[in-house]
Amino acid sequence: MIGASAIPILLATTGAPPPGSIFGMPPQASTVAPMVDLVYDIITWISIFFFVGIVGVMGYFMIKYRRTSHVANTSGPTHNTPLEVTWTVIPLILVIAIFYVGLKGYVHITTPPENAYEIQVTGQRWFWTFNYPNGASETNVLHVPVGKPVKLIMRSDDVIHALFVPAFRVKQDVVPGRRTTLWFEATREGTYSLFCAEYCGTQHSQMVGKVMVYDPDEFEVVIEEAARWIDKVPDDNLYLAGTQFFNQCASCHTLDGSKLIAPSFKETHELFANRGTRKLADGSTVTVDEAYLRNSILHPLSQIVDTYPSSMPPGIGTQLGDRKVEAMVQFIMRLDDTAPDGQLKEVTRAELVEESTEPEGE
Ligand code: CUA
Question: What is the distance of C-alpha 24 from the center of its chain?
Fold first, then answer.
């Protein structure tokens, strides 16, 4: 509970006060946010009213009926029908009203409008992938237009996650083997936090992203750019482009040689650099060359490395597209440049598209 004196301080530290919520809720940035906050505010005010009322009367009685030497003991009252009916009926009406408002909001939140813009969402340990109708695929960044309903069609590749955008007041579990949906209509341009709200393993707290809300015309440009950026990366820079989407590989492949459920890229890179061979699950061996790398991304189930499970999504090559596959092949071939000392090199998409970095040799 926040005292009245704390409210101005709270608003001062969080920037512009969101309209309609004085209980420290994040800014309201979707059409449902004011409704959610209204219910929250009403329940909080009811709680404050009864807390103050009950504790106040209790305090008054404690003083008035405190034990003193000159008061005779009497037996306590047994019951009072009008009083009991009152304290049953009034809360009953209140909870029915809260239920009604809550149910109405719930139905609204769970019924996406017919014309909603659809975005496919995949939750994976430990990142989010957002796929757009024009083929753009973004990791941990959700672009949406302002003032238009957006429907997220969500699935999980592994365990239960939950997509949560506090500023939109929406949250929905993402469950393996099932499609779940979530819709919202953003009302304010800006950048908002996005979280995984279901404990999904050791890196759960790192499964965060952002929602970026644009004016509809700008949104079209951003989405177009997101679909095409890889085509704009000059060939000289393509080996570095993998840094932008390596997080799709990171839950199974490491860069520093440590073992997850698939071979570390470091090990693969070293074999490639020394023209080494790898033993496959079917007993054969294969030379780790460029063709092997490419085939392992395009047809991951065709050459399973011995002792590892065949767990790579077979459709990943199609999902990435030719140029990203090529980028990832080069990324592994030049791992000393793309992930020196096992740390992913930090480059922005803009840097990749604009300047040509110095090639540092194979
Ligand atoms: Cu995904 Cu927590």
Answer: 22
Q: Which residues pair with residue 232 across a beta bridge?
A: none
d(CA 328, CA 241): 8
197 lines ligand 1 (CB under 6 A): no
Alpha carbon distance 62, 39 (integer Å): 34
Give the phi and the psi of residue 281 in degrees, each rounded to 5: -65, -25
How would residue 1 be classed by pLDDT, with cut points 50, 70 and 90?
very low
161 CB less than 6 Å from ligand 1?
Answer: yes
Take atom 1 of ligand 1 and give the residue whose Cα is closest. Answer: 161
Residue with tokens 């460029």: 290
Please report the atom of ligand 1 found closest to the CA of residue 198: 2
CA count, 13 A, side-chain hemisphere, 251: 20
CA distances from 76 to 55, 65, 80, 83, 324 (A): 20, 12, 12, 15, 80
164 lines ligand 1 (CB under 6 A): no
Ligand 1 atom closest to Cα of 162?
1
Are residues 323 and 231 in contact, defined by beta-carbon separation less than 8 angstroms? yes
Rounded distance from Cα 155 to ligand 1 centre (Å): 13
- Give the tens place of pLDDT for each residue, 150-171: 999 999 988 999 999 999 999 9
This model's pTM is above 0.90 = no
**Separation of alpha carbons 247 and 242, rounded Å:** 9
Query: 273 phi and psi, to 5 degrees?
Result: -65, -30
Please work out whether the CB of residue 162 comes within 6 Å of at least one atom of ligand 1. Answer: no
Cβ of 170 closer than 6 Å to ligand 1, yes or no, is: no
208 lines ligand 1 (CB under 6 A): no
Q: What is the pLDDT of residues 96-131, one digit of tens each?
A: 998 998 899 899 999 999 999 999 999 988 889 899
Please give the distance, rounded to the nearest whole angstrom, from the Cα atom of residue 247 to the centre of ligand 1: 15
Q: pLDDT tens digits, residue range 177-225? A: 999 999 999 999 999 999 999 999 888 888 899 999 999 999 999 998 8
Euclidean distance between CA atoms 197 and 154, whole angstroms: 14
- In 3D, which of 324, 296, 299 has the Cα closest to residue 139? 324
